[in-house]
Amino acid sequence: MNRPDQFETDAVATVTTAATTILERTVGGVGGVICFEVQNEGAVALNGFDLQIKAHPAGAWSNYLTDTDFDDANNANLFFVTVTRPHTLAGPAKAVATVRVQGAYAVRFRAHVASGTTTVSIRGTTTDQ
Description:
This protein is an all-beta fold and about 130 residues long. It contains no helices and ten strands.
């Protein structure tokens, strides 16, 4: 079993009504699984959350898991998600998910709110399993 690689630092961002990047992280093409915790530290609920991937360093970001994908128990790339889903996360609250990103060069987490702003953090680990 390979040692998990913890994200370098907890990523924190002020999320607005536009899709706001919370964290971009290179997983180097061998990243197999990411387990992450999203925490809404403010009072405004999230109105959307997505995980995007990039196939290579010069590639464009592509949607991988978005909003209601986190509700789909049959999604082969979603191993686990708490009952509290990241795309509707009220504040203050947390959600945890474990997802497959095998082969991706990099991942990006984004969120937005319907109105106002809120503070969101993400922390987690990656493995090449």
